[in-house]
Structures are given as structure tokens and as C-alpha cells.
Amino acid sequence: MEWLSAHPGLFLEAVGDHLLLSLTGLAIGVALALPLGILVAHRPRLAEAAIILAGVLRTVPSLAVLAALLPLLGVGFTPSVIALALLALPPVLVNTVIGIQGADRAALDAARGLGMTGWQRAFRVELPLAAPLIFAGLRVAAVQVVSAAALATFIGGGGLGDLVTQGLALLDTGRMLVGAIAIALLALGTEALLGMLERHLAARVRGA
Amino acid sequence: MRRRLLLAALAAPALARAAAALRVGSKNFTEQLVVAELFAQALEAAGARVERRVNLGGTAIAHQALLAGEIDLYPEYTGTGLGVVLKEPPEGDAATVLAKVRAGYAPLGLDWLDPTGIDNGNALLVLPETARRLGLSTLSDLARAAPGLVLAAGNEFADRADGLPGLRRVYGMEFRRFRQFAALGLRYAALRHGQADVVNAYATDWQIATYGFAVLADDRHLWPPYQLAAVVRHGVLGDLAPALLALGPRLDNPTMQELNRQVDQDGEEPREVAARFLRGAG
Amino acid sequence: MRWTVRNLDTVWAALLAHCGLVAASLALALVVALPLGLLVARRPGARTAVLGSASVLYSLPTLALFALLVPVLGLGFAPALLALVTYAVPILLRALVAGLGAVPPAVLDAAEGMGLTRRQRLFQVELPLALPALLGGLRVASVTIVSAATVAAYISAGGLGSLILTGLDQGHTEKILVGAGLVALLALLLDAALGAVQRRLPASG
Q1: Between chain B's N and C termini, which has fewer beta carbons within 10 Å?
Q2: pLDDT over 70 at C136, yes or no
Q3: Which one of B159, B178, B184, B186 would you mutate to disrupt binding with A, by most A Cβ within 10 Å of its Cβ?
Q4: ipTM of the prediction
Q5: B223 touches chain A (CB under 8 A)
Q6: Which residues from B are below 8 Å from C153, CB to CB?
Q7: In this predicted structure, what is the pLDDT of residue A136?
Q8: C46 pLDDT band (50/70/90 cuts)?
Q9: Which residues of chain B make contact with A165, given a CB cutoff of 8 A?
Q10: Cβ separation of C64 and A61 shorter than 8 Å?
């Protein structure tokens, strides 16, 4: 912990980079997954294809995704963020599709009876009903992204992983442990916080 | 040959050694393995029996092996000899540094042969297009263009006397931005993808040959020379020294980049690469 | 592709090392998770505690866990193995406990009525019924471990990750792509194979 008190600036910068990487990657991933999920949910063939694609993407190791982008996109922030977005995509996509498909038939029929268009139904009925499941996907995605952002250091993306790799390279155990503990706390904190929100949300939807 | 055998038979111990195998060592990276093979095969071509004791580890280990008489020679860089072994500041021009290491090694019973044309020191690289567009061939040229360029280098480059502070002091060089990448491969990727305009590397890296990067000349001698030469236990070479010295002028940085590339990128054995070079160029 | 063609032995060795690391950690994780799961499945207090701490272990990012183990165990195979077991155990444990929990009480009563001992009931009734769930856990665990073992190269445990990392260090595109491609393929194949086994099991439970 001496390293931390000696270099608070470096530490905060690494935390900032880590959060920026994670949030940007997560935002892009969700921005892609959500509309894609809404679009394919009512087209059984496409929905199945999307779920298979998500399964493949989920199975490919994070380090492989990051490394494979280097020859295409070079080093640093951009390829790291794109890799993180790719990792965030599958859980949100799958849960959106399943959530919408599982939305209550009776509620949908009622919406149709009220003369709602497809998009109106999607936003006013299906999405609210699917929200708890989508949020669960978001939680999984967020934890994965915060974890994988630690690997961005290998392609020059910065973040807390830098402290770990520098620590190991310089035989500076303090720096390495500060990085490792911070990464672990960030991931566990994300999981706990979003888990709490998720239970809150589920209770409200059930109550409504 | 017959004369040597005869003398050896007369049992003068010092001379008997000349007929025994010469033990060629090396440190543990590609260039060292290739050059050790070149030395070994050149000596074999001159009629010597050679034993290879390569891949010994870092500078300290190779040097200890030489002192202990476990090897008879290995390739070393003048700047490394001065800085790491003799622990003197590696400063001065090529001739001065060579004179210093020769003087410093002599009491240890070790000789530096005349260096090859290889000088594997620090280097700043740019894309060939950048060099053409901005008319860059030396670091002095770069100093003019630097305020518009991004430099990528290792983590320690910002603070080391021969890094940014040295560039500032000797060339008055100020870059628009400095990005740190510990891994050399990331610096090369940054250069290729236009995420950095200038990167710090080493002059005989094979990536320079592969991607055709332009190496800018250190025209005001900020960096010490790292000329590659054979360091030899005094007297073991006998009349074989010319065989090694003949290699020197045939080796230069572009040649070494290509030989390193054949091992690292194509996955060939140092032995094959050395043999083909000796056949082709000899 | 010249490097790959000339270094098939290196690539093969990396693939084997990777598979070895994955197989060893899965086996060890099964050895830990099976008895532990059986022990806690019928004890609600212990179950909550074990599952809770297991999910914390599972949420630890790979690089962080490896880095935390370095000062204690050093570099190489042993800390990598321990870290990978740490990932696999919670997944297997959760799957086993869920599988055992889903066995209908009526079935258990029937088994008791037939005069089976506790041991017989476990091996002839409960475990076979929990097998599909356990296999599902094994599938998730193996994909997770293939992925985490890639990062193990960073603490010198070898495997396909070392191709990726040396490729990144050298700027050797071919090494990066061969390493990343093989590890992705390995994960997909393992997932597909265990998925196929899962589907061939009689649908039960």
C-alpha cells in the first residue's frame, strides 16, 4: 500500500481510464444489442441466429478477442473499447430476445386492441415487461466488461491492468497488488450494486 | 594443419589448446544465437573444431562463463561491455568506446576483436512515407518536425538520460505528444496504424526490415555505440582470428535485421540461417 | 504462414499445454466440488455460505486473481492451476446443488420406501437425476477455464496464451492470430462437444 500513498495520481488516472474503457464499451455494446434484440425477437429464424451468434461470441476468450483486433485496428483505446463492446453484446442480446419473447400474450393482445403500432408495443409493453431480464443481462455484461478491461493493457489500452503488468515487469509487488485488488473490488462492486438494483427493479415490476 | 598437429604432438600445453575444440558462447536472444552460429561456422570453415555453448542467459552470465574459461568467445556489444561489465558511463564515439573496452578487458585476459558493421543501439523510426513527406533522414531533421508528431516509446524513455531528456538536450526535440507502450510489438503496431508517428526501438529489430520503417541517423551522437564484436579469451584463437575478422565487414544493420527476421518471423533455425548467409555472401 | 509451418511443433506443444492445464484444473475442481456439493446440498445454512463465497470467487477478474496469487505462489503452473480451480469450483458447485435440489421429494420418499440406504439412494437416484445439471455446469466451467488459461500465460504457465503474448510483444501478427484462433476454436469445440453429450442424456429431472 506504500505504492498507493506514493502515487495517488497514477492510481486515480488508472481507475479513471478503467472506468472510461468499461463504460464506453458497455454503452456501445448495449446500444447495439438492445435494438438488435427488439428487431429479431419476433422473427424466429433471425432470433435463433442471433442467439447462436451470441453463444459463439460468449465462448471466445476475452484475450483472444482483444488480441485479434490488434492487427486490424492497432493499439490503444479504440480496439480495446470495440473488444469490450463485443463482450458486452451477448448477454444483453440474448436476454432482450428471451425477455420480449416471454412477454405476456394477454398484455400484447390488449395493446393491439388499443391500436398500438409494432414499435409502440415494443416500447410501452414488451420492453417494460422484459426489463428485469434485460437488466440481468446488463449486470452480467457489466461485470464481464470491467473484468476484461483489465486485459486491455496487453494491447496498450491502459486502465488498472497497466498497474499489474508494470508491477510484474518491475518486480514491484505493491503496485501489482494495488492494481489487482482495485480490479477485483471494481468487479465485485459492480456485481453487488447492479444485483441490488436488479432486485429492486424486479420487485417494482412485480408490484406494478 | 599438419604443422599444428605436429606442434600439438610435441605437447606444448598452450598450443595443444589450439587443436582442442573452440567453445563459442552466446547470450539468450535471437541475434546472439545467429551471430554465434556465424562465428562457429566461419571457424569450422577455417579448419577449427568448434563446440557450441550458446543461449547462456544475460550479459553477466556470458561474461562469467568467459572469465571462468567455460567458453572461449562470444558476441558482445561495445556499449554493453562498457556500461554493464566495466560499469563506466557508456559515452563517446565508436572509436573511444572501443578503446575503453579494450583497455578495460585487457587485465581480465580478454580481447575485443575489430567490430563488425553491426551497431545495435537505440533508434527512432518513422514510416517511409513520413520520412519522404517531411524529408527526414537524421534526428536533426526530426527535431524540426517533432512539434507536430506523436512519439511512442517504452515506459522508462520519459526519464532516462538517453531518452526524452537526451533528445531535448542534444537536439532540442519536443514532441506534440508522448505515448508509453512497454511492449515493443505495441509500438510497431502503433506506428503501422498511424497512432504514433515516431517510435523508439533497437537498430537491428527484424520488424524494421519487414515493414520497411526508416531509421533516423543519430547525427549528433546522443546514443553510445553498441558495435557488435567477438570477445575472446586471450591467445585461444591462434591463427584463426582472420576467419572471424573476415565476417565483420559483411555484417551490417540491414543484414542483421534480415537474419533476425528469418529466425523470428519465419521460424528458421539460427544454424540454417547462418549457413545460408555464409554460402550466399561468401 | 511460414512461421506456423516451420513451428508446428511449438504450436502443437502450446495447444497440448493449454489442454493439459484445462484438463488438470477441471479434474481437480470436480474432486473438490463433488464431495462439497453433496455435503452442503441438504444443509440450507451451509449451502448459502458456500454458494455465496463461491460466487465471489467466480466474479474475481482473471488478471486480478493471477496477480494476487503471484506473491504467494510465484510464477508458473501451480498458481495457474490454483486460479483455474478457483474459477471452476463455484460453477460446478452451483450446478450440482441446483441439480440435487431439483430432485422431487416424492422420488426420494419412494426410494426410501423401497428400502434403499442413504448411500444407495445417492448413487442410484440422486446423482443420476442431477447429472444433466452437473454436465451443464461442466460445460460452462470448461469454456471459462479455456478462456482464463489464456491469461495464465502471463504468469508463465505456458499454453496458447503465450503465443498471443509473445506475438503482442514482438508485433508478430501471425503468432497473435494463430494463438487467438486456436484458443477460440478450442473453446467452441469443447462447448459444442459437451453440448452434444448433454443432449444425448435422457431428459430427466
Answers
A1: N
A2: yes
A3: B186
A4: 0.89
A5: no
A6: none
A7: 94
A8: confident
A9: 182
A10: no
- Of A164, A175, A102, A172, nearest in space to A133 by CA: A102
Compute the distance between CA of residue B282 and CA of residue A19 in angstroms, rounded to an integer: 59
User: Among B9-18, B60-69, B128-137, C106-115, whose mean pLDDT is lowest?
Assistant: B9-18
A205 in Cβ contact with A132 (< 8 Å): yes
Ranking A77-81, A183-187, B18-22, C77-81 by mean pLDDT, the lowest is: B18-22
Q: Mutate which of C58, C63, C145, C164 to disrupt the A interface (most A C-beta within 10 Å)?
A: C63
B234 band by pLDDT with thresholds 50, 70 and 90: very high
For residue B190, give how far its alpha carbon lies from the nearest alpha carbon of chain C (Å).
10
- Is residue A146 within 8 angstroms of chain C, CB to CB? yes
pLDDT class of B6 with cuts at 50, 70, 90: very low
* Structural domain for A124, as ranges: 2-207
- Chain A residues whose CB is inside 8 A of the B155 CB are 166
Report the DSSP pairing between strands B50-53 and B22-25. Answer: parallel
Mutation target to probe the B interface, by most B beta carbons within 10 A, among C170, C175, C176 is C170
Nearest to C172 among B186, B265, B268 (CB): B265
Find the CB nearest A63 among C56, C67, C164: C164
| pLDDT for position A206 | 67
Confidence tier at B19 by pLDDT (50, 70, 90): low
Q: Which domains does chain C have, with CATH numbers?
A: 11-199 (1.10.3720.10)
- Lowest model confidence (mean pLDDT) among A103-107, B98-102, C58-62: A103-107
Residue B10 has pLDDT above 70, yes or no: no
Q: How far is A173 from chain C (nearest CA, A)?
A: 7
Q: Which three cell numbers stand for residue C54?
A: 463461491
Helix (H, G, I), strand (E, B) or coil at B226: coil
Helix (H, G, I), strand (E, B) or coil at C95: helix
CB of A113 within 8 Å of a chain B CB? The answer is no
Separation CA B101–CA B114 (nearest Å): 12
What is the band of C203 on the pLDDT scale with cuts at 50, 70, 90?
Answer: low
Measured between CB atoms, does C73 come within 8 Å of chain A? no
Instruction: Enumerate the domain spans of chain B.
Output: 2-119+226-281, 122-215
pLDDT score for A207: 62
Average pLDDT, chain C: 91
CATH architecture of structural domain B122-215: 3-Layer(aba) Sandwich (3.40)
Q: Which pLDDT score, from 0 to 100, does residue B281 have? A: 56
Q: Which of A71, A74, A166 sits opposite B195 (nearest CB)?
A: A74
Residue contact A156–B193, C-beta within 8 A? no
CATH architecture of the domain with range B2-119+226-281: 3-Layer(aba) Sandwich (3.40)
Count the domains in chain A. 1
The single-letter DSSP state of residue B88 is: S
Query: Which CATH number is A144's domain given?
Result: 1.10.3720.10
